[in-house]
Every structure is written in C-alpha cells, then in structure tokens.
Design goal:
Length: about 500
C-alpha cells in the first residue's frame, strides 16, 4: 500500500466523479490519476529515483496535487515549500533537503534562477505556465506529450513520503520526515473519527504546503472519494462565494479565518451557505468568544482539533457525533495515545498541566539531518509536542499554551492563552496576543498587543481594568499596546517570535 496506490483505487472506483473544482475548471478522479502518471513518468525519465527528494513550490492549484502524488508515485519524497518564502529561506530548504528537482510556476522562477547556482543538488525545474528551455521544462509540455503509463515504484510503508519543514519559531526550520504509513494512518483515523463519506465537498484554502492542508483537505477527501474545492488565496468574501457556488459541505481553517468571516458578515448575508454542514478549526487555539460568535452567525458547528506537523498532523479532535467540548481540542483520534508529563517526563494526574506527548503510527520518522533533535523530540518513544496542556476525566485535551511561551512572574506560571481569552471577552476587542516582558523585580510580566474591532476606540487602561476584574493580579498585563494588526505566520498563527523580537529591540 502507498499513498499513490490509494489515489489509483479512488480513481478506479470514482473515475468520472469530480475530485477537484478550481475556479471554472473541474477535474475528474480519472483525469487526476492520468496527469499524475504523466508527471511521474517524466520525473522518472529525468532521473528521480527511489527516495530522492523533489520540491513543490506552488500555491493551491491542481498542479500541486498532481505534483505531490507524482513524486510519491516515483517512490520519491515530496518537499513542499511555503510560497511566501523569500530566496534565502528557499535556498536553505533546498540545500538542507538536497532536492534534485523542483516543480514551481512562472511567478517563482526568477527567484529560483537567482539561487540555483547556490544549490548544487538542483538539476531540473518544472514550471507551470513556463517554457521549456534547457534544465527548465514547461509543466504543460509534460501533460501534452507524456503517456500516462503505469509507473508506480514499490515502496514500503515506512518509506518516507514527505519532508515538511516546521515553522522554525525556535531557530532554523526542521524537516519532519513523514512516511506513507504515518500519512495513510492519520488520514484514515480522521475519516473514522469524523465519519466522513464520499459525498462531501471540502474547501481547500488552507495552504497545501502545510501538513493541515495536505492531510485534512487533500488526503482525507481523496482517500474517501470526496471532492475538493481548491481556493488559491484566502479572501473571506471570495471563500464564502465559493462555498455557496460549489456547494461546499466541509470547511477547514485556522481561527483567524473564522474571525475574518465575521468581519464581512454584513456583506454576505445574500450567499446561500446551506450546503455547509461542518467546520474544522486547528493550527492555533480557537478563542471561545470567536467560536461562539461564528456559530451563532453562521449556524454551523466548529469542531476543534490539533496536532503538530510531526504527527501528520492530526492527533486529537472533538468527535463529529457525540460529546463536543468547546475549548478543548478533543480526544485522541483512533490509534493515537496521549499522555501529559512534567519536566522529568513523569505522567501527571488528570487535570494537572504538563507537556502533551503523543504516541502512534502518525508520529514522524524523525527530523532530516538532525539526529540530536530527533532523539530529544522522541525520547522514551513519545513525541514531545512542546504544548502545555491538561486532560480531563473524560480524556479530552485542553491546550493551555506553548511551553516556550509560558511567562514566569515572580516564580508563578502565567499562560498567555488564558490572559488572551479574557481580553477577547472585551466587547471592543477583535484580536489579542500576550507575551512576556523582562522585569527587574519579577523576572517577567505580561504584555498584551490588542487589535480593536472596526470603528472602536479604547484606552489601554480599560483593557487592564477589564483583566483585573477576572484575573489574579500577577496575571494581569502590565502594559497594553493597541495595534492595527498582529503579525502572523503563513498558516495563520500569531507570530509571537516577531512580537518578542520587536519588544527586545524596542520597536513595539
């Protein structure tokens, strides 16, 4: 069994069914499988061998899906790169992963050409919308000239399928090596846990280079014979129009997307969203006030789940049917085990806060070129997520914060997420982030960055007083800064690394 073979099975079962809607185009399962075979035949002819690495640097387009499966059909490893990265960031990943080929589009080609001479392993580039010239070949020429031959390379389940680079919030990004077994297991566990069927239509506006988009918005629907509505960029009104026009049934997004939907609610009342049956949220904590407001406005339930890239990525999720606990990321999905440990790796009692650790077939093989980081992350046979959380009496998991984000005020732990939740309850607040600020008396104190709702104004003192009414004094931010927007990563998480750096340098 391999990821590529599972696409073949779906194509054999649903040949004429639409697997992908993109703008005004539709692609059937049979057409997708044939295009994958054409691209795979070219890659093998060009020299891509078993477990060689090939990069995909594309936005959400059908060619991304075709390229991903084509690389795996060769027995290769797909290295998917954030399209927002600049030349130096891309160069680092290409060199670290030693890719021999890259599939990209015309918009990114000048950047690739500018760094090519600094990437000795890079031999060829396939360019969507480009021209064939020397070591560069047009993607369209491959589709028009290659025969869709059966060229599946046999792979073992523990063969690496994808190398996904983590966000690098604590330094250089690390390449998480995910096997065919990791990804197949995780996708089928999600299918079982959420009980999705082949009549679903998933929106895919989450970036496909990221594990959340790849597993939940690509592998889950393809393995289950469902459809995907691909959306290249997130614009709330555009996405809502696509949901209405394409009759999307499942939307998956990060909390910031749900906040954006609420910001345009007055403009889009005319859209028929009756097809939408379910929403997923992950990638970052979902503020309770935001979840409540969205569900009231749109009459659709949000199921929150989570898991790091290293766990393929879904490890826990609220069930679609059964007990849903807002504020929690749910229970472990089938076949996944979770424990909460202290700093000495001892399991803590239910209800106590510690580091969340995960064990299961979804856990990565390791980090590329980083044996020490791999050993540290997988010590004792459990993946240490770096998330602080607790497990209740029913086995539901609550993420409190990132371990590295915790603030220690005079020896007492302050979890920024708890403070942020309180700030969100202020009626004029749209967004908030809390970090630690150095203090000569207490070591650290909390500092809040707040974005107000459109047309609102408030003095920072009012936010501080609001927190004092609901929090112990040591948890209350000693400083509040009103900003127009918070810095975010490409996957929608608040980039606290940027906030901390700005605080250190005195920019904010």
């Amino acid at each position: 069994m391999s990821i590529s073979r599972l696409l073949r099975e779906s194509a054999a079962k649903y040949p004429e069914k639409t697997v992908c809607y993109f703008e005004d185009k539709t692609i059937s399962y049979q057409m997708l499988d044939q295009n994958v075979s054409k691209v795979s035949a070219y890659l093998q002819k060009a020299g891509l061998s078993f477990q060689d690495r090939a990069a995909v640097l594309l936005p959400n387009r059908p060619e991304f899906i075709e390229s991903y499966f084509a690389i795996l059909r060769c027995g290769g490893i797909a290295v998917t790169i954030n399209p927002l990265f600049k030349g130096e960031e891309v160069k680092y990943i290409l060199n670290d992963s030693q890719v021999s080929m890259i599939i990209t589009n015309q918009a990114y080609l000048p950047m690739i050409e500018s760094i090519w001479k600094y990437v000795p392993s890079l031999e060829k580039a396939v360019v969507v919308g480009g021209e064939s010239n020397g070591d560069t070949i047009a993607y369209e020429d491959i589709i028009s000239s290659m025969e869709p031959v059966d060229c599946d390379v046999e792979v073992e389940l523990d063969s690496v399928a994808a190398c996904l680079y983590t966000s690098g919030t604590t330094g250089r990004p690390k390449g998480a090596l995910l096997t065919h077994d990791n990804l197949i297991f995780d996708a089928y566990s999600v299918i079982e846990h959420i009980q999705v069927k082949d009549d679903e239509n998933y929106s895919c506006v989450l970036p496909l280079f990221h594990s959340f988009g790849q597993t939940v918005c690509m592998l889950v629907p393809i393995f289950s014979g469902a459809s995907i509505t691909l959306i290249e960029q997130f614009r709330p009104d555009t996405v809502l129009k696509e949901i209405a026009d394409k009759k999307v049934t499942i939307f998956a997004g990060v909390p910031a997307m749900y906040g954006a939907f609420l910001s345009v609610i007055k403009k889009i009342k005319s859209y028929d969203l009756s097809s939408l049956k379910l929403c997923f949220s992950g990638g970052a904590p979902m503020p309770m006030e935001l979840m409540k407001a969205f569900e009231e406005e749109y009459s659709v339930v949000i199921i929150e789940g989570n898991g790091p890239t290293e766990t393929s990525p879904v490890s826990y999720c609220n069930p679609r049917y059964g007990l849903r606990k807002p504020g929690s990321v749910g229970i472990p999905i089938p076949g996944v085990f979770v424990k909460i440990v202290d700093d000495n790796d001892n399991q803590v009692p239910r209800g106590e806060i510690g580091e969340i650790c995960v064990q299961g077939r979804n856990v990565m093989k390791g980090y590329l070129n980083q044996p020490e980081a791999t050993a540290e992350a997988l010590k004792g046979g459990w993946f240490h997520t770096g998330d602080l959380g607790r497990m209740d009496e029913d086995g539901y998991i609550y993420i409190v914060d990132r371990k590295k984000d915790m603030i220690i005020v005079g020896g007492l732990n302050v979890y920024p997420r708890e403070v942020e939740e309180i700030i969100y309850q202020h009626p004029k607040v749209a967004d908030a982030a809390v970090i630690g600020k150095q203090d000569h008396l207490r070591g650290e104190v909390a500092k809040a960055y707040v974005v107000l709702k459109e047309g609102e104004s408030v003095e920072p003192r009012e936010i501080i007083l609001h927190c004092k009414e609901k929090l112990a004094n040591y948890k209350v931010p000693k400083e509040v800064v009103i900003v127009e927007a918070l810095p975010r990563t490409s996957t929608g998480k608040v980039d606290k690394k940027v906030l901390r750096e700005a605080e250190t340098l005195g920019y904010l």
